[in-house]
Fold this sequence. Notes:
Blueprint: H1 3-33, H2 46-68, H3 77-101, H4 106-140
Helix pairs in contact: 1-2, 1-4, 3-4
Amino acid sequence: MTARRDSERLALQVCVALGGCVPVGAGLAGVVMGPWLASGVTLVPIPLDSHFRYLSGLLLAIGVAFWSTIPGIAQAGPRFRLLSGLVFVGGLGRLVSLLTLGAPDAPMLFGLAMELLVTPALAFWHARVARRLAAARARSI
């Protein structure tokens, strides 16, 4: 394996590790703080609190699942694509809110950018790295 392929794989692993901090941190904060994490929230019905904390737990789990792909990232294609698809669909839901109710606060816009731009970019990058590593292994056999 060439140094370039190794360095690209390592760069992807670092980016996934850093990017995973967003859903893990936001998910953990949402589980602990509930809807009061969002700006301007003053009164929350119990069912909404429960739903918010549940979805925050899912977000936390998605981040941990992304982290679980790091050690063998080139072989984690199906899991990486599934997680990326889940995040992207969630971002589409956030986009519907933006289009129907207007722009949310900055942290939610950051989340939208992560979901609809960064995560798909990482998925495409992951596919490229995995293809290159598979081709290099095939040539060395």
